[in-house]
Specification:
By secondary structure, the protein is an alpha/beta fold. The chain is built from 30 helices and 26 strands. The strands form 6 sheets. It has an 8-stranded mixed β-sheet with strand order 7-6-8-9-10-13-14-15, sandwiched between helices. A 5-stranded parallel β-sheet has the order 2-1-3-4-5, sandwiched between helices. Strands 19-16-20-26-21 form a 5-stranded mixed β-sheet, covered by helices on one side. A hairpin with a 7-residue loop joins strand 17 and strand 18. 33% of the residues are buried.
């Protein structure tokens, strides 16, 4: 035979040598083998081909043509060179190269005759990766990173391994020590949390120890697969790993132990070594059986490499396939699985059968503390795994935990240490409802710079968009506007919140309340003038009444029969002018015409004053509309007293910046047109306008914003609004939803103007992410169920926070006690003054205005008569005042009276009020 192997495949050399030694020590097999050895590498086909041609030509020259070419090259140009050599020269070949059906390019289109003597049996290392396919199908894994070392060949597996399975995956070789940690980090940034490691136990240990501790949490899953049969060890703090290793056939354990001890075939991995051993032995026995049965052609034709011209391949009819199948020699590790029937090709479907033991290994503090059997997998191209512990194996699956980055902005996202994820808000409720439909979990973090994402002049992004581009985030959540430039680098779901525009938020002007606000209706100088007019008119009326010959006091006899005998002294004039200003009226007017003209003039004056006062008082106390200096964006742009700015890095900032840039570009275009020398005078005159054809509104506004300074957070903007004064106000321009919520929860803020530059809100995902379609379906389902409307109602209308704030719409249109309360104070002041006056009257009457007691000398003869007269006139116990007494004595011609005799018991007299 000609034995062709490749560099570094020492295990094949050892196994073939053991097989030849086994043949020698077992003469009952009837085999005598003369072997020619050729070695090549995977990259140099020329030297390998020359060596093959040399060995083969030498054997033909010695008249000892080989019966078999045993090929243990794995892959690459070495394997392709051997396949081309055997195909061209028609040499019976048994190959152990990697590859399924169609992977051996030189043996793809074999004739039925050539299929009889060109045979390929897949090595165990080519079958073991198929278990990954079975695990992914069983666990419904949607993403996977498959790492492998040099003990596995995966070049031909990139497309075939997970073909027709909707799993996003990466197949790559394990990096060296310096780059291994960053390799795992990059795979994680590709949104991969299921890791499959194919390799030796040493390679697996290095990969596990290179991963961060956080990569062994519940949202990650590790599956390590090896050809070795030793236990898994690694220095990991806390991890539970699915560990798969091959198991030998139970019926062959005795033979395996015998070969190991007797023939010293102890190299690892055992499964590969015994595969080469069984394959070599089976191929030799098959050739022996063909020779013994006489099926070997007697006129076997051989050609050398030099004789081959591309068309003269010998047409051999050797049926080595049947002989290979009919070999009864027992296997050492596991039997060969050979397809039955002519429809299934031998090559790419023949392999050694074996089972993979599936275990869950728990590692704590760098030591394996527990190993639990989960099931087995029988080697096959499409065999499912046999699960023994379904509950346990489900615990080893990586939970679907998406990384969510957000920006805190009420009421969409708000911090809440008591919430399950540490946040609450409209978007959190929305994401939870989507998670119920799509079935996933998430971890949420704030983006470090607090930005949703903007692109600088160098095309670099920040904020959530940067996280999505770098694959550090799966979902961007919050009040994130859908913008054209963002859609070039990330994807958006269907909008969960309809068009939201930019609005203006300012401080709500406060109307100061005053108990004596009714006095502020007229200015102080007006009140003083009214008071002066009052005293002047009162004095004038007294003068006219005193000096007019037609007044009452100067014509008492004329008006002695009138019911109203009103003398307009100073007191009455003051009272008349005062009461004339009230609905009660001033009472009887003066008798003289001049006084009445004065009274009529005062009435007209009072009517005008009262009417003006009443109208202004009503306007002052009932009009609730506040005088706002800014009511629209145009008003804001035309004034310079109030500063204004949007949030730094927000979509509002981008809007004004872009609008200013557009105006500048349009102006440059117009200027270039107007200064074009190729224009005629008429054409240039059409462009000569007094005003620029392009407005510079946004250019001036953007300049004003930069001078005012852009706040970095909404809290900072609200604080600047509250710190502003009437002399230097501040207005914030931002999303209407944010402003509306701030107005609802803060009594000192107001929303001004209409919304403009409307954009929808949507959830951001990575570009090309399957989450887009999943979330789209979920959001549309929520829209159909009116769930989103309920969430809006909850967070914008029924929120408990806003109930603490009194709404302007809830205030009454009537006059508040704060503005009219002074009237009640006037009543109490008047009552107090009346009480003081009453006391004064009591004092004045008792001590200043009592009747005086006088002594009158009267004649003795007249005493009885006078006493009798007095008794007849005065009731008993009554006091006769001095004036009355004078009148009385005057009328009766009495000259003298003695009051002590007329008014007895004067000391007991009590005045009546």
């Amino acid at each position: 035979i000609v034995f062709v192997n490749e560099v570094d495949n020492n295990l094949a050399n050892v196994a073939v040598e053991v097989a030849l030694n086994y043949v020698k020590k077992n003469p009952q097999l009837g085999l005598s083998v003369d072997m020619m050895y050729v070695e090549g590498n995977r990259t140099d086909s020329k030297d390998l081909l020359q060596a093959l041609c040399s060995k083969y030509g030498q054997s033909l020259s010695d008249n000892r043509p080989p019966h078999l070419l045993l090929d243990t090259t794995l892959t690459g140009v070495s394997s392709e060179t051997v396949k081309s050599f055997s195909l061209a020269l028609g040499i019976p070949t048994v190959s152990a190269s990697y590859g399924q059906e169609g992977d051996l390019r030189q043996w793809r289109d074999l004739t039925p005759t050539k299929r009889g003597y060109l045979l390929q049996v897949m090595p165990p290392a080519d079958m073991i990766p198929q278990v990954i396919r079975s695990i992914i199908i069983y666990m419904n894994i949607t993403n996977a990173a498959i790492l492998y070392d040099n003990t596995f060949v995966m070049d031909h597996k990139y497309k075939a391994l997970l073909q027709n399975i909707p799993t996003r995956h990466v197949i790559t070789s394990i990096a060296d020590d310096r780059d291994r940690a960053s390799q795992i980090e990059k795979l994680r940034n590709l949104d991969i949390n299921n890791f499959f490691v194919l390799g030796s136990l040493a390679s697996i240990k290095q990969v596990l120890e290179s991963a961060k501790n956080e990569y062994f949490e519940r949202n990650f899953a590790w599956h390590v697969i090896t050809q070795e049969q030793k236990d898994l060890t690694c220095n990991v703090e806390n991890a539970t790993i699915m560990f798969l290793r091959p198991m030998s056939d139970s019926s062959s354990k005795d033979r395996l132990g015998s070969i190991r001890t007797t023939y010293n075939l102890k190299q690892e991995p055992q499964i590969t070594g015994f595969f080469y051993f069984d394959l070599t032995l089976r191929a030799l026995i098959a050739i022996k059986n063909i020779l013994q049965s006489g099926s070997w052609p007697s006129n076997m034709k051989y050609i050398t490499c030099e004789d081959y011209d591309g068309t003269n391949t010998p047409n051999h009819t050797i049926d080595m396939k049947t002989a290979f199948v009919e070999v009864t020699e027992p296997t050492t590790f596991g039997p060969f699985e050979i397809p039955k029937g002519a429809k299934i090709p031998f090559n790419g479907n023949t392999y050694m059968k074996f089972d993979m033991d599936i275990n869950a290994v728990s590692i704590r503090g760098g030591a394996s503390v527990n190993t639990r059997n989960l099931g087995t997998w029988e080697a096959s191209l499409n065999a499912p795994i046999n699960v023994a512990n379904e509950a346990e194996i489900k615990n080893l699956t990586a939970d679907v935990v998406y990384r969510v980055y957000t920006v805190v902005q009420a009421p969409f996202i708000m911090r809440d240490p008591t919430a399950p994820k540490g946040f609450k808000g409209y978007c959190i409720d929305l994401l939870n409802k989507i998670a119920e439909i799509v079935e996933f979990d998430y971890e949420i973090r704030e983006v470090e710079d607090g930005k949703f994402g903007n692109m600088n002049e160098y095309g670099e992004w920040n904020g959530i968009v940067r996280k999505l581009i770098d694959k550090q985030a799966d979902i961007g959540l919050g009040s994130m506007s859908v913008m054209a430039e963002r859609e070039t680098v990330i994807d958006f779901t269907v909008p969960y919140y309809d068009l939201v525009g930019i609005s203006i938020m300012m401080q709500l002007p406060s109307t100061p309340s005053s108990l004596f606000k009714f006095l502020t209706v007229l200015e102080t100088n007006v009140w003083l003038c009214i008071l002066a007019a009052y005293f002047f008119t009162s004095f004038l009326m007294w003068v006219f009444d005193r000096y007019s010959p037609y007044s009452y006091q100067n014509n008492r006899e004329k008006y002695k029969n009138d019911d109203e005998k009103r003398e307009f002294n100073i007191k009455e004039c003051l009272w008349f002018c005062m009461t004339s200003l009230t609905p009660q009226g001033g009472g009887e007017a003066p008798k003289n015409l001049s006084g009445r003209l004065v009274a009529a003039t005062w009435w007209l004056f009072g009517f005008i004053i009262i009417a003006s006062y009443t109208a202004n008082l009503a306007a002052f106390l009932t009009v609730s509309r506040l005088d706002t200096p800014v009511e629209s964006l145009d008003d804001l742009s035309k004034q310079y007293k109030i500063l204004y700015a949007p949030l730094n890095g927000s979509s509002a900032m981008t809007y004004f910046q872009r609008m200013a840039d557009i105006e500048a570009k349009f102006y440059e275009i117009w200027k270039e047109m107007s200064l074009n020398d190729s224009l005629t005078a008429v054409e240039r005159s059409k462009l000569a306008v007094w005003d620029y054809p392009v407005s510079d509104k946004y250019t001036k506004m953007w300049q004003a914003m930069l001078e005012a300074g852009l706040p970095n957070s909404l809290e900072e903007a609200v604080q600047r609004i509250r710190n502003s004064t009437s002399a230097s106000g501040f207005a914030f321009l931002g999303d209407a939803t944010d402003i509306r919520y701030q107005v609802l929860t803060n009594c000192d803020l107001q929303m001004v103007g209409e919304e403009f530059s409307r954009k929808p809100y949507a959830i951001a995902v990575q570009q090309g992410s399957p989450l887009k379609d999943q979330f789209n379906n979920a959001i549309l389902m929520l829209l159909n169920r009116r769930e989103l409307e309920k969430l809006k109602e909850q967070w914008w209308k029924n929120d408990d926070v806003q109930n603490k704030c009194e709404k302007p719409d809830d205030q009454s249109d009537g006059i508040s006690i704060q503005n009219i309360g002074g009237v009640f104070i006037v009543i109490f002041v008047g009552i107090g003054m009346a009480c003081i006056t009453l006391l004064f009257e009591f004092w004045y009457y008792k001590y200043r205005n009592n009747s005086k007691v006088i002594d009158i000398v009267e004649s003795s003869e007249q005493q009885q008569q006078q006493t009798a007269v007095v008794k007849n006139v005065r009731p008993a116990g009554k006091v006769i005042k001095q004036d009355s007494l004078k009148d009385f004595t005057k009328g009766q011609n009495y000259q003298t009276l003695r009051t002590r005799t007329l008014i007895p018991n004067l000391s007991k007299f009590q005045p009546r009020f």
